[in-house]
Amino acid sequence: MHANEAVIDKFYSAFQQLDAEAMASCYSDDIHFSDPVFTNLQGVEAADMWRMLTSKAQNFSLTFDGIRADDASGDAHWIATYTFSQTGRTVVNDIEAKFVFKNGKIVRHQDQFNLWKWAQQALGLKGLLLGWTPFLQNAVRAQAAKGLQIFRSKK
Questions:
Q1: pLDDT of 155 strictly over 80
Q2: How many domains are contained in the chain?
């Protein structure tokens, strides 16, 4: 196993245990994270997002596979299943991750998933009917950003 594959494996194994500190230890101090909801997190913001998500996780499970990495980059596939706290609905989020490495740490982490599919699961009929629209997607992003801001203010 390549050393950077081991970093990815450590990251997702820690995630399975909801261990945000171990996840954060895989990131460089200047990490850049993005996904369809959290579109531009830098440095400690990214680690705090994982701290927030793991601290609020309900009925959580995670599987991962397809880890591949070389000296510079890597990718993985993961599926998170959890209860979305705002609605009590079960979400099964299927995610493709891409990574960039420097000095044995992740410096860029980009997750891709279908936000409309996520909204259908998390929000029900509202997500089905409006989840594809920029209006609802931007509202989801704004709510997530607000939640992260509140979480960070309580640290």
A1: no
A2: 1
- pLDDT of 133 higher than 90: no
pLDDT digits 0-9 by tens, 62-79: 999 999 999 999 999 999
Q: Is the model's pLDDT at 125 over the cut of 90?
A: no
**Mind giving me the DSSP string for the chain?**
--HHHHHHHHHHHHHHTT-HHHHHTTEEEEEEEE-SSS--EETHHHHHHHHHHHHH--S-EEEEEEEEE-SSEEEEEEEEEEEETTTTEEEEEEEEEEEEEETTEEEEEEEE--HHHHHHHHHTHHHHHHTTSHHHHHHHHHHHHHHHHHHHHT-
Domain CATH for 20: 3.10.450.50
Look-up of token digits 């954060």: 24
Residue type present at position 53: L
**Quick one: pLDDT band at residue 88, thresholds 50, 70, 90?**
very high
- Residue 149, domain member (yes or no): no
